[in-house]
Amino acid sequence: MTNTTDSQRVETLRWRGDSLEMIDQRILPMRFEYLHYTNADEVAEGIRSMVVRGAPAIGCAAAYGVALQALAYQHKEKTVFDAAMQHGYEVLAASRPTAVNLFWALQRMKHFHNAQSGLAPLELAAALLTLAHEISAEDVRINRAMGDHGAALLKDGARVLTHCNAGALATAGHGTALGVIRSAVEAGKRISVFADETRPFLQGARLTAWEMVQENIPVTLITDNMAGHLMKCGEIDAVIVGTDRVAANGDVANKIGTYMVAVLAQRHNIPFYVACPLSTIDMQLPHGDAIPIEERSHDEVTGFGTQRWAPLGVQVRNPAFDVTPAELVSALVTEKGVIHRPDLAQLAQLMRQS
Ligand code: MRU
Which domains, ranges and CATH numbers included, belong to the chain? Predict the structure, then answer.
């Protein structure tokens, strides 16, 4: 992998001739750099190490990972090609467990791959790349549609709290939760954003704050433990977050700390909205307790980067996500429209229509 420096344009993933480049989100906003990827192993490592993160962006990266693997082996014999592809699917599927978009994208690639398995590796690789491009372009269209539907929920002048980063950096563009905010601003509404810092990986402080500053959308950074105080003081009008997986009953997994925000929002009668493409809804899982919650390295909690602040020998937990029960969700914003008080019946109907 090599580094390339670029301007401050948010193009989370970009195709460059015969390889993929992804913004290195671990070092934003201090540095803006793209890393270069040429096969499935490299992309899987990029997902695992959080070069790319955010459910839809992970899905797009995985789709490109499959295409890259095909391109890397397109000149080999069919048996070698097939074995490499099998490895590619497996290594990508093992990269992160919670965001269902990863598995959704891999399944879509695999399904197409199986249907086209009569093609020679060279042709199949080209066709898989076309599909990866389509998954990425579709993600932007979906986020725009979600933005249009969700913008109506935010009043002119609304002060909106968000947790983690569900912006352009978490998708192929525009964002889910931040996409709704962007679309409301584009519609002429004066929206101001409160960004939870989002310990331990600081997606709010580093990524959401950066995206909003880039676009001159007023943003105020707070630490996670300030949200309750601001709600009590009447300074928050709505909460909107993204999600990594929605269970069939409407329970929502998102970045650790989201559940705490949802409980606080209910206590203060503040609407709690979740922006969610249909690819994030997992009808296979009956409820949120069945969603696998990733546990990440203790180093993320005991310090940041090279800085360590916790004593050696301390025990640490680092669940990266939590589950907010459906009863705390005021509405799900999807590309097909807004679902108030989501439940099994409504989600089943929505997925049947899609
Ligand atoms: O660990 P991350 O940074 O991948 O977690 C991301 C989130 O929790 C986002 O809120 C979620 O993926 C929705 S992104 C549109």
Answer: 13-143 (1.20.120.420), 146-353 (3.40.50.10470)
